[in-house]
Amino acid sequence: MTQRETFAKATLDDVQMIRSLPPLPVPESYIELITRHGYLKFDPIDDPCRFDWEYREPELSMQFESNLASFMSATRVKRYYTGLVLAEDEGLPKFPNFMLPIGTNLGQDNILLECGGESDRIWFWEFQGDAWGEGNNVRLGFVANTLNEFLHKLRVPEG
Predict the structure, then answer these.
(1) pLDDT truncated to tens, each residue of the chain (159 aa)?
(2) Residue 43: which residues within 8 A CB-CB, separation 6 or more?
């Protein structure tokens, strides 16, 4: 797909803005993706892109599938980070400041990148109001141990 289409690539200003958001270092794997390949977008008909994710509970593991519509532009990353981490809005869930929203599916769900850790783990957040009856929805689904693993797990559905 990246050989037949061109995508807007992150500029130095984009990278600087993204790096300024979380208090911990943004993984270089993500910076390389957006500067080398750009903010990839996946057409649901021509280039559908699926991935698996799971909720991991002590006594139960539930597996699901979702789609990846795009890796968000730097301005969208900043807007989502501000809304999901920094904004003092009682109506929205809040995530730790080391979680950086980097992608979305065809709905309102988000792919989150863990910053500052030993690994650049990828998480999935389903945008549902009180999906678990706990007052808010801040449960994250595990996707992959690294961004590279996530990229390698992406697939086109059969059929």
Answers:
(1) 555 578 899 999 999 999 999 999 999 999 999 999 999 998 877 778 999 999 887 787 889 999 999 999 999 999 999 988 887 766 666 788 899 999 999 888 999 999 997 889 999 988 765 544 555 566 789 999 999 999 999 988 776
(2) none
